[in-house]
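Researcher: I'd like a candidate sequence for this fold, 327 residues long. If you have to choose between options at a position, lean toward the conservative one.
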């Protein structure tokens, strides 16, 4: 090519209108939250976007994010799933079993990354954890022994407890919550605690159960991760306060609302952990090649005001091991 032709070619490209130049390929991510928009989950969504930004995906540049909130009920999850199926995202990040089941009823091809699913194998989402198969993978929100840990913490902060119920919604938990119940019952036997059946399907049943526990002294409650419980966390905490029952919860936001103690995944960290899977799928990986992960961080949070109101003295060892003490 002659020099003058080369110069003419280069000069010509500079004259191409900006709008006609190649634009970055935009990936679409749909985020479906089972819960309402709360500060904790807004922070979790922001943490996800921050990690994605560090991996090269910028909102408004080569990434478009559509988020949906309060989809925890079966009706809400189905409505959002229909809307998302029509928008054809590249990846869906879904929170809770109800949300993922609704999404799977609409698509068996769009890649889905889940968070806040306790037992994806028993739930039928994946065939096994190492090679999920299908279009779903993600990060669970428990380790198998957590039911025992919750009861141990309840006894540690309220040693007088001799009767405890594990709140389980049998309609939303695979095998009626056996993944939580088995370690809980085993711990109850070793700690000398009577395990009280805690199957509940609505707020009226939760109130009746707590009222029953309060008819005799030394009762206590453990609340498991569940989209229904999460969407009614304020009422559940208020009922425990009303019946003066020491209670252990799965997430920090219960304690921020006045609950006694929580032990569970750090939600902000969990969403950070999910971001690399979204990135890898954007770049061509299949969910079936990405093993289901367990959470990497669990936080212990204590509400010292609530402990005082219940007449409980929080052991120094428990205070020392807490990630946060709300005064």
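Model: Candidate sequence:
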């Amino acid at each position: 090519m002659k020099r003058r032709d080369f110069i003419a070619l280069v000069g010509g490209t500079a004259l191409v209108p900006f709008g006609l130049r190649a634009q970055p390929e935009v990936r679409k991510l749909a985020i479906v939250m089972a819960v309402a928009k709360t500060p904790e989950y807004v922070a979790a969504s922001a943490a996800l976007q921050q990690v994605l930004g560090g991996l090269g995906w910028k909102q408004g540049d080569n990434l478009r994010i559509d988020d949906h909130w309060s989809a925890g009920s079966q009706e809400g999850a189905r409505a959002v799933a229909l809307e998302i199926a029509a928008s054809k995202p590249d990846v869906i990040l879904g929170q809770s079993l109800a949300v993922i089941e609704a999404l799977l009823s609409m698509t068996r091809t769009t890649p889905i990354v889940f968070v806040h699913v306790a037992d994806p194998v028993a739930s039928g989402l994946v065939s096994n954890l190492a090679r999920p198969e299908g279009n779903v993978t993600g990060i669970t929100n428990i380790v198998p022994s957590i039911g025992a840990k919750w009861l141990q913490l309840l006894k540690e902060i309220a040693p007088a407890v001799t009767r405890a119920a594990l709140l389980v919604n049998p309609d939303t938990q695979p095998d009626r919550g056996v993944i939580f119940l088995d370690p809980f019952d085993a711990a109850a036997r070793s700690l000398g605690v009577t395990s009280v059946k805690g199957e509940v399907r609505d707020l009226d049943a939760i109130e009746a159960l707590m009222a029953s526990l309060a008819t005799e002294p030394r009762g206590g409650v453990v609340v498991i991760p569940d989209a229904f419980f999460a969407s009614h966390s304020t009422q559940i905490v208020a009922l425990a306060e009303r019946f003066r029952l020491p209670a252990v919860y799965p997430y920090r936001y219960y304690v921020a609302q006045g609950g006694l103690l929580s032990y569970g995944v750090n939600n902000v960290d969990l969403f950070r952990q999910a971001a690399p899977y979204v990135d890898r799928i954007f770049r061509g990986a299949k969910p079936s090649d990405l093993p289901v992960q367990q959470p990497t961080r669990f936080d212990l949070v204590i509400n010292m005001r609530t402990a005082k109101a219940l007449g409980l003295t929080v052991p120094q060892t428990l205070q020392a091991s807490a990630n946060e003490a709300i005064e």
